[in-house]
Amino acid sequence: MYQGLVRYTSISDAIRILAAVFISSSSILAFDFVVYFVSENPELYIPISIILLDFFITLVALAFSRVAYKLLYSYYRSSPHEPKENIAIFGAGESGIITKRSLDKDSRSSYKIVAFLDDDEKKAWKKVEGINIYHSTSESITEVIEKYKIHTILISVQNIAPKRKKEIIELCLKLKVIVKSVPRVERWINGELSLAQFQNVNIEDLLDRDEITLDKKIISREVSGKRVLVTGASGSIGSEIARQLRFFHPEKIYLLDQAESPLYELEIELREKLRFNAFEIVVADVRNEVRMENVFATFKPQVVYHAAAYKHVPLMEDNPSEAINTNVFGTKVVADLAVRFRIEKFVFVSTDKAVNPTSVMGCSKRIAEIYIQSLNEHLFKVGGTTYTQFVTTRFGNVLGSNGSVIPVFQKQIKEGGPVTVTHPDITRYFMTIPEACQLVLEAGAIGRGGEILIFDMGESVRIVDLARKMIKLAGMELGKDIQIVFSGLRPGEKLKEELLNDKEKTIPTHHPKIMIAHVQSYKYEQAYRELEDLIKLFKTQNNDSIVAKMKIIVPEFISKNSVFESLDAGVIQ
Questions:
Q1: This prediction's pTM
Q2: Which has the closest alpha carbon to 171: 204, 206, 122?
Q3: Is residue 75 packed enough to be buried (19+ CB in 10 Å), middle (13-18) or exposed (0-12)?
Q4: Cis link prior to 357 (omega < 30° from 0)?
Q5: Looking at residue 503, which CATH number applies to its domain?
Q6: Binned average pLDDT, 10 residues per bin, the chain of 573 residues
Q7: How buried is residue 545: exposed, middle or buried, by Cβ count under 10 Å (0-12/13-18/19+)?
Q8: Cα(256)–Cα(330) distance, rounded to whole angstroms?
Q9: 191 and 101 in one domain?
């Protein structure tokens, strides 16, 4: 009974006390019966009422002494010179109670829990361990925050709807209250929750997106037991495709990229963290025909996800030859090999910047789209069917990806600013990396060849609003702690992105977030000839000639904020 630390007294200690007192009282009672039947001296006999009284007094005294010690320890453990921050816990269920207890027993905690908030109206005006529960309407949350001068709200609901979580975060940001969340139970360390595990909410939580429901049977049918090649595997999209694919039990995944260090990091993550071993790392460049031919001949993939690409708009505006070499020629190399080695499915990852392109990068991806589609149509016309099905997926910006504004803003905020936004009216469509890759898998599975599948990106977001919210999420005040500076549109950058051009229409699919774009078709012979001429210009390293040729192939390519605007003079006139 005395082996436990008194300041950590819990129910298990109470059970041990009960057991110890019961054993001792039972022993006295047994001895009493022996005395009663054996001894003739009644003075040695202890009345049963005394034994029962002793049992209850001892039990209460031992339990009370430990509880009192624990309360005194809890009261005096923190220095009186360190004021506590008032916090409220959103969620008065089991997770919320565990959160409260974790904070109570953590000596490092600088929090004082003053209220519970819950969506269940039946819990309102009741108490949990002495703390009042309030119904979490916008009005009551505002009232509780003002009444208790709450500094932080902890969201401790395991399965909160994304829309509801967004509403709470938006309200807290408006009231200048910090928001943190409790991780899911499976991520608790050794099944226990600690202060260090509380997480700052991410900007992704403000996207107002419901969880995507995948048709796992269709995806499994496409990749289960098959050899899958992922190009650009060390990038944000390629690596997440690899993570998602492991759930569908492919025979093997071949992760191909030219970036050595990121590939190594992905290998370590898959083997050690995710416990997945059905993959092989391939260091190769999609532009190297000899190397890529050897990859296809050696590994004989059945499904290809082609995510390798240069995607930084301003960089490609300064380096057009590299844009066509990787995004056009590299795609052509992999696509031609897919036909030669009779690949079943080729899924090309494109971008919304390919629609009415204003940048070299966007145009290079559109040219790749044209070649992929025309090749699929050509194979169908020649053979009456096509063994290799070419499917293109097109979506917008991905939150947290390499080159995304999110990591840039996070770094600038961490360094104290300023946060640079190109234009006050610039907007973008956003999607999380897992969401985008899940849709790529589903789109690839439902595509039957020749389609360009676009994703429902939701509402476009003003970048300046995104920056303001990230500043608030970091606990800073705009204009006081940090500034936003407008730097002007970068070369090739649009104010607003598009998923379709004016001539394109969509056809719905079985998935509400995936649509088929009806786009202009090109004859394979023409597309092949134009691509060959464009690729030959790489050797000239003449940027004007390369971009001029790109504009011939894609007439809707009109440069913006670029040195190549002069090439559009004749077109505009």
A1: 0.74
A2: 206
A3: exposed
A4: no
A5: 3.40.50.720
A6: 62 81 89 77 77 89 80 60 75 80 68 84 82 87 87 82 82 84 63 61 66 74 92 91 91 94 94 91 95 96 94 92 96 95 93 90 94 90 77 80 75 87 84 81 83 78 85 81 87 75 66 79 90 94 94 92 82 42
A7: middle
A8: 13
A9: yes
